[in-house]
Amino acid sequence: MGKITGFKEYPRDIPPDRPAGERIKDYQDVHNRFPEERLQTQAARCMDCGVPFCHKGCPLGNVIPDWNDLIYRNRWRDALDRLLSTNNFPEFTGRVCPAPCEEACVLNINDNPVTIERIEQGIAEHAYEAGWMVPSPPKKRTGKSVAVIGSGPSGLACADQLNRAGHLVTVYERNDRPGGILTYGIPDFKLEKTVVRRRLKLMEAEGVSFVVNAHVGVNVPAAELRRKFDAVVLAGGATRSRDLNIPGRELDGVHLAMDYLPLQNRRNQGVAVPDDKFITAKGKRVVILGGGDTGSDCHGTALRQGAGSVTSFELLPKPPGARAGSNPWPEWPRVFRTSSSHEEGGSRDWSVQTKRFSGEGGKVKKIHLVRLEWTGGM
Ligand code: SF4
To answer: Which of 127, 144, 149, 169 is in the most buried spot, having the most CB atoms within 10 Å?
Structure first.
């Protein structure tokens, strides 16, 4: 384990994010870099539990106590190898994963959890800077070829695994750049696109091919892929929206998140988006329906675009500040959370349902809401 008494000696410690007033003027990462010495101290807090519940929390089964111990001992290269044994892209998960491992951490029973996610990110960044993340193509090719449709996180991870196994992989992406939600969904202030491009470059150097502007079933016949490849993997994204079919939905000014967010990402990456195709919140009174991560991303983007006001509404009631008795550790805690975007301004309200929109001249002007009263427990 890290340091036997580490969890008793050191409190959880994370560097403060960039000041909100500064960061809403740009789209750069909201986080400050975590100095490595402090990261090692945080890794020393890991108790190397007999039953490491962090494993149960992590969908990847990351071997968390092992790399915590290695970081504490300053063995970064070994920590990287351990991390990469379960995680294709720690530089992504170390930034945008909701970190269920931390919620499940045993220290979280009566203390604050180990800063697992930031340690994960730290290992990945240390590795890139040390020059350890170099192309490592398979030693032998199998002669088999696979098409992967979709270049988001699942498509990329699938392509990476298949390539490592020696198959020749071609990834098809309907957009003009690969990366799916990593490139054209998650805002830059949570995941800078240099991080995505760095990984894509590495994968290309390892032998993975990318075909962009290729919407399989639309401008690339599916039959062509079945003819050309030994196998086809469907890893398309989940951009089918959950629409709100209420009166006034058709009014100009009512947008879906995944129509709105990618446009700003495009501009941030230097892709030209004409003004008449761009959706901007500049100077507008913005209402966001949905209090989850996507709503939060819209909230932070609207603030950066210079919205006159930003208000987020959530259908469900405001969660409690601490776990309810019916939601014990190590379950995912259904508690009140404040994202970096919410810290930056605007307001939020809960138990609010939208009944209809109304407008003038085809443009939305009003939103008609009711306050919900939830009964019978959630
Ligand atoms: S549950 Fe927490 S303290 Fe225990 S091994 Fe995992 S990270 Fe370390």
So the answer is: 169
Are 214 and 292 part of one and the same domain? no
Which among 4, 5, 47 is the best mutation to test ligand 1's pocket, defined by most ligand atoms within 8 Å of the CB? 47
Residue partners of 205: CB distance under 8 A and separation at least 6: 135, 137
pLDDT (mean) for 352-369: 98
Q: Which atom of ligand 1 is nearest to the CA of 104?
A: 1
359 and 281 within one domain: yes
In a domain, 244, yes or no: no
DSSP 286-353: EEEE--SHHHHHHHHHHHHTTBSEEEEE-SSPPPPSS--TTS-TTSPP------HHHHTS-EEE-SEE
Q: Are 210 and 171 in contact (CB under 8 A)?
A: yes
Is it the case that residue 2 has pLDDT exceeding 90? no
For 291-304, the pLDDT digits (tens) are 999 999 999 999 99
Complex ipTM more than 0.85, yes or no: yes
Range of the domain at 43: 6-129
| 378 has pLDDT over 60 | no
User: H-helix or E-strand containing 364?
Assistant: strand 363-371
**Domain endpoint, select from 129, 163, 183:** 129
Q: What is the band of 240 on the pLDDT scale with cuts at 50, 70, 90? A: confident
With pLDDT > 90 as the criterion, what percentage of the chain qualifies?
A: 96
Domain total in the chain: 3
Give me the pLDDT at residue 376, please: 73
Give the tens place of pLDDT for each residue, 185-212.
999 999 999 999 999 999 999 999 999 9
Cβ of 99 below 6 Å from ligand 1: no
* Predicted pLDDT of residue 3: 85
Instruction: Please tell me the distance between residue 89's alpha carbon and the centre of ligand 1 in angstroms.
Output: 21
Same domain membership, residue 358 and residue 262: yes
Going by C-beta distance under 8 Å and a sequence separation of 6 or more, which residues neighbour residue 358? Answer: 247, 248, 251, 364, 365, 366, 368
User: Are both 202 and 122 inside the same structural domain?
Assistant: no
How far does residue 68's CA lie from ligand 1's centre (Å)? 9
